[in-house]
Amino acid sequence: MDRETRVFAENHFRGLRGRLPSRVYPPLDRVDFIEKPDSFTYADFFKGYLLPNVPCVFSSAFTEGWGCRKHWVTPSGKPDFDYLLQNYGDVIVPVANCGIQEYNSNPKEHMPLRDYISYWKEFIQGDYSSPRGCLYLKDWHLCRDFSADGVFTLPVYFSSDWLNEYWDFLDVDDYRFIYMGPTGTWSPFHADIFRSFSWSVNICGRKKWLFFPPGQEEALRDCHGSLPYDVTTPALLDSHLHPMHQHCSPPLEVTQEAGEMVFVPSGWHHQVHNLDDTISINHNWVNGCNVANMWHFLQQELCAVQQEVSEWRDSMPDWHNHCQVIMRSCSGINFEEFYHFLKVIAKRRLLVLAKEASPGEAESGEDAGLGPQQATFDVGRIAEVLASVVVHPDFQRLDTSEFSPQPEDLLQQLEEVVAATTSL
């Protein structure tokens, strides 16, 4: 990030005065297509799409050199099953059954990749039908099982990725996934975890995306307040079941071709269909542009848990702590871990700035691709969100005596850095 982009971003968030960006989006009739890598900078993406939180599609030229596009695909553009079997056949992968609805998702099983590819071949031979149903390999953590070297190169536009930086630091998980499946596999209507951004590259095949900007999903709720499983179902036209549907604009539809890269903004609900036999790489990521969205989402999740178990409030000892435990089991994170998430990113950014101030010091913890302007911006965003966290009544109920540093002390340190760098 250069200085001009940092100042532009800080002015953007200063204008919000601590509020979330507007949930009212101007009508979009198309998604921008970015053609040439050489003429599209990180600043262009940051100011044109990341801050406004709108989708875009990058051409296949951006992924032309990726190893997976050369090795995972046959000359005819189909999945190279032989290569995948030879290199990954024994890996255990998660597989969802697209034909079975389980709440607003699909049930999953685990199997060796070679068994899934055997099923896939039979599915094709059976004219894209099988007694086993329509199975979709989803959420395979390839980067956890193997090195990504030679497979793909992280695009610079998505390099400020706090979510995977945090989980890599803990060395326990990540939010980098491989999806693969035959024509007809699909992902039900959803918004991405923690209201993260995501990016998705088709290694081969095509996808159809149906996008709804934040707020539009409210008009899709049924009379019980539930979101739909499938936004293409005719049931949505039933005004008794979906009384608000008439107020919902048509989805923004995108067809993603092989090699192309889709940027999915924070909080945009979407549904995705594979139009061909398709393999894709997908990452979820959070940074200073949407960390406030993540915090807002976590507050909503806690409120939902508290409402669900409200009848036990007076009779359950330590009810508030139990709500945090339930929240973590349902959402993957609670208020305590969110603080540690902010702390880890903050400490790493402070190290970057310390090294900038004193060359030769603070070598550890620096992300080689992170510059001081980006670090300065990040510190400001963490400080603003942390200021909201420390005064939240449910955070104040946590036992933070063992936290190091104490939340208030970390906030003070960050605010001092922000004050010192405002004029830089």
Automatic annotation (TrEMBL):
GO molecular function: 2-oxoglutarate-dependent dioxygenase activity; catalytic activity, acting on a protein; metal ion binding; sequence-specific DNA binding
Family affiliation: Belongs to the JMJD6 family.
SMART domains: JmjC (SM00558)
Protein name, UniProt field: 2-oxoglutarate and iron-dependent oxygenase JMJD4
Keyword field: Iron, Metal-binding, Oxidoreductase
PANTHER family in UniProt: 2-OXOGLUTARATE AND IRON-DEPENDENT OXYGENASE JMJD4, ARGININE DEMETHYLASE AND LYSYL-HYDROXYLASE JMJD
Organism listed in the record: Pteropus vampyrus
InterPro entries, per the entry: Cupin_8, JmjC_dom, JMJD6_ArgDemeth/LysHydrox
Gene Ontology BP annotations: positive regulation of translational termination
Complex formation: Interacts with ETF1. Interacts with the ETF1-GSPT1 complex.
Sequence ranges assigned to domain JmjC in this UniProt record: 143-302
Source domain of life: Eukaryota
